[in-house]
Design brief:
six-stranded antiparallel β-sheet; 10% strand; two-stranded antiparallel ribbon; alpha+beta; 495 residues; 61% helix; 18 helices
Length: 495
């Protein structure tokens, strides 16, 4: 069978098949590009939707008007798709920047429309005017192309200014460029407790889903009694928290890199402490909405975050209980009452000792680090810290119940980064001198043996030269000084 009608029919069939294949291929490629750009299959689908609507309406208009798909009209769909994708990416990129700057998605939508709307409108108007010039042509195919192209471009413009803002209004979007360029410091998965177990790229996703805020020294983060809208993670700098009222006598706490602030307030709905920035600080604010979005979009990351948050809270409760037990251990008798009871005064409540411990960041959630001070003192005896000594201290910390991600471990990391100074060792001596009178002779010997044996293991970890003289002369001096702290109290009978 041959003839012009058969050839035209075959050509139209090829045009339809080619149009369907090219459109589907383009949609698939665009979806992959958008998903990679926004680091989320879900966000890629959302970004693709405003580009699909003009195509659907265009092909629906062809069928409704009875216009057949021809070589001319088949060019309109890919052209409109390309222009719509371009406008969508421009909108999303500006929206992300405004959302980071303002910190509110709905306000960012208004700001984005004000910035992107006018140029998109002018561009669409110019393109429509250009295609409408074809309406004056004597060739019907050209008139159809002019009308259909202008109509499709108008639909794409309406989609970009109406549907796209509605889809973005409650979304926090992460781009691949932000993911690559964001700096969270060295090893965020290890140095920031909330990110423990996450890869660096996953930690950046969490940071970009929240809000990174640079806060100057002296400014308050929140006050007690204010509604708690989110928790804060200290990325760099220092934040102090303190209590008013009946607990005002408790020492203030200083939070450094990796520590959470305000997480308890988020649980109860309002902050229970005051928080002020001590030095220029960068914090990550994670609101309840941010956490919910992470849960919906990145469930595996959310599971790790919730696990780490629970671990931090449980660790603080455990350390608080440990601190209370130390309170009881620090109690000393001041005299006997008529009924035979004892009047006691906790040494942790003593102003002088409390001040010396607080200035060294020894507080209820870091009190477990006290046991590591003699090990740090031995390791730094030679003025430098060998890799073997560092590994030995970290191993002892793990045995003593100071795992990564806790405030005690973060404090230990600071001590291993640079020499902590003599004040730390003096505070430890004061601690031991207060504790020893409360122990039996057997308890004192066990404590002495435990501290000295751990310190000796750290000293030997450096290895010496070819295994000769693994303990240096200066380390030996420090070991003797540690033993002397216990020997000074050995002659004092227990009260």
């Amino acid at each position: 069978v041959t003839g012009s009608s058969v050839v035209v029919g075959s050509a139209l069939d090829e045009i339809v098949r080619g149009q369907a294949l090219s459109i589907l291929t383009a949609i698939g490629i665009i979806y992959l590009v958008l998903s990679g750009l926004f680091v989320s299959l879900r966000v890629g689908l959302v970004a693709l939707l405003p580009n699909m609507v003009p195509l659907g309406i265009y092909f629906g208009a062809l069928g409704w008007s009875g216009i057949h798909l021809s070589p001319g009209t088949s060019l309109i769909a890919p052209m409109v798709l390309g222009i719509a994708v371009d406008d969508t990416i421009h909108y999303f990129a500006r929206f992300i920047r405004e959302a980071r700057r303002i910190g509110d998605e709905e306000k960012a939508t208004v700001a984005t429309l004000a910035a992107v709307g006018p140029p998109v409108t002018v561009t669409t108007a110019a393109l429509c005017a250009g295609f409408l010039c074809l309406v004056t042509s004597d060739i019907s195919t050209q008139r159809e192309i002019g009308i259909l192209a202008s109509f499709a471009l108008l639909v794409a413009w309406l989609t970009d200014v109406l549907l796209t803002p509605a889809l973005c209004a409650r979304m926090r979007i992460v781009t691949l460029w932000d993911l690559v360029s964001l700096d969270l410091g060295e090893n965020p998965g290890e140095s920031i407790g909330l990110f423990q177990g996450l890869r660096s790229s996953q930690a950046r996703i969490v940071a970009l889903m929240g809000t990174l805020i640079d806060v100057p020294a002296g400014r308050e983060l929140f006050r007690a009694g204010e509604p708690a809208t989110g928790l804060f993670v200290v990325i760099n700098g220092r934040v102090r928290t303190w209590l008013d009222g009946p607990d005002a006598g408790l020492p203030e706490l200083h939070h450094l890199r990796g520590e959470l602030v305000g997480e308890a307030g988020l649980s109860v709905g309002e902050h229970i402490t005051h928080a002020e920035v001590v030095e220029d600080t960068r914090v990550l604010r994670l609101s309840q909405g941010s956490m919910e979005q992470i849960g919906r979009r990145y469930p595996s990351i959310a599971a790790v975050l919730f696990r780490n948050t629970n671990r931090v809270l449980a660790g603080r409760l455990a350390l608080q209980a440990h601190a209370q037990s130390l309170d009881r251990a620090f109690q000393r008798p001041d005299g006997r009452l008529a009924d035979g009871g004892l009047s006691v005064e906790p040494l942790l409540g003593d102003a002088e000792l409390a001040r010396s411990l607080a200035t060294l960041r020894i507080r209820p959630d870091t009190v477990a680090a006290l046991a590591l001070i003699p090990l740090v003192q031995v390791a730094w005896a030679d003025g430098r810290l060998a890799d073997g000594e560092r590994e030995a201290i970290l191993a002892e910390a793990s045995r003593l119940g100071v795992p990564k991600g806790t405030a005690s471990h973060a404090l230990l990391t600071d001590w291993l980064r640079r020499p902590p100074g003599d004040g730390l060792y003096d505070a430890w001596k004061e601690y031991v001198q207060a504790l020893m009178p409360q122990l039996t002779v057997e308890g004192r010997l066990r404590l002495r043996e435990s501290v000295i044996s751990r310190a000796e293991r750290v000293a030997r970890a450096a290895g010496g030269v070819a295994g000769v003289a693994p303990v240096s002369r200066r380390e030996s001096v420090v070991l003797k000084a540690l033993a002397a702290v216990f020997d000074e109290e050995a002659e004092s009978p227990r009260a």
